[in-house]
Amino acid sequence: MTEKTTTDDLIAKLSAEPAPAPTASPEAMLLRRMALGFGGTLVLFFTLLGPRPQLGLAMTDPVVLAKTALPFVLALLALPLALNAARPAAPRGWQAQAIWVLPMAALSLFMLAYATHAPADRLRLFVGHSIPVCMPAIVTLSLPVTAALISILRRGAPLNPPVCGALAGLVAGGLATTVYSTFCTEDSPLFYSVWYSLGIAMAAGVGAWAGRRWLTW
């Protein structure tokens, strides 16, 4: 048997074998898993809370609209960062710089509200009446999206699993806060720029724990 015949036989044998099933990339799973996760968040929201009365009218005020828009933009910017964190060689992307605009915007709104309210009103607006509901609700609403993202990111190979998980929690916290804001009647930045931010930070902490637990390889 000649060497050429042996090589031809090997090629023919390999060609006849079925190709291994490709492993789905995180992007290939993103839409379906995120839809399931966000659907879970909406089910929890409408079961436990629901939208506030006259929501559309309230959101005609730009300051009220900001408490919904800012966390949504945060989630949009954090999502590609989470996906890139699951790839060892992926660049950080422009979102890594742009995302810092969001906390600066929240801080600017806080300072503006502080400057334009009377001293007697500042503490009342800062404390509000719903802190015991706000942060636990944001964390609870974030859990389905966090679970969905962790299941996606497991398909990658994150070099820093807690950071990757924290970014997933940041996405989930941003989306959860977006949804929660349509229930909340605390419309002053003195309240929402602080307590919403702490709720999102707690959601990111849950994501960091989940990353350490399930993204290590």
Largest sheet: none
From N to C, what is the helix and strand string?
A: HHHHHHHHHH
In terms of per-residue confidence, which ranges show pLDDT below 50 for 5 or more consecutive residues? none
Overall geometric form: globular
Q: What is the count of distinct domains?
A: 1
Put simply, the count of helices is 10
> Structural class of the helix and strand makeup?
mainly alpha
- What's the overall average pLDDT, rounded? 89
Query: From the alpha-carbon coordinates, what is the Rg to the nearest angstrom?
Result: 23 Å
Beta-strand portion reads: under 5%
Helix content: over 70%
Describe the fold and architecture:
The protein is mostly helical. The chain has one domain. It is built from ten helices and no strands. The mean pLDDT is 89.
